[in-house]
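Re: weekly structure request thread

Next one in the queue (221 aa):
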Amino acid sequence: MRTRKQGLISDELKPLVSKILKESREKYNYSLEDLAKAINYQKNRQTLHKYETGKLNIPYDILFEICRIFNIDNDVFKNAPITEEEQKIIEKKIIKEYVSSLRQDKDLTKEEEKIINTYKNAYYEAQTNRSELCIKIVDDSMSPIYLKNDKIYFKKQDDYKNGDDIVIAVKNNTLSVRRLYRYPKGIILQALNPKYPTINVNIISNNMILGKITSIYREIK
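Done, posted below.
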């Protein structure tokens, strides 16, 4: 789909942008294919080459995405020969970035956002210097280690070992904690409270496990 003219940088700004794109790409040792991949192939390497050489005017949204990837400071546009309309577009981008920087969920990946939107007891909360996924325990199935209303922080792992306490969907739209044990024909998801049944699963992939417990927060009354 072609970008309408008002969505493209001006001819006046094009020489500066072409220079910035090429210098930044070479500084970070990115090939044109690397850059195309970094912007999720919204533009291919041939088109990116035309932006660099000034044969095409780059769309603002692609320019701002590349600026984010290469950490290009907004000050590079301060003394640029741009129109008043273009100045407003850049200022709007700066304001939007500032507001975004204040969001607690700014670090969440698309997969983490999907978890929050899918499971009613999952949410994000700032912990240390970034946002962490967490759930609120809704029952006493993992008592006495994890109690009802505890906040449980968790993180996706590349692999899980026997004895890991993991977060998994036991009931529809609700996440729970279970202790993981693997055996040759499947796995066991154990509830620590004997009132709750142990779940035996023949086949499970790591994608079904949403994360391993990293920390716990409990209010003392």
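The radius of gyration is 24 Å. The chain has a mean pLDDT of 81.
Next request, please.
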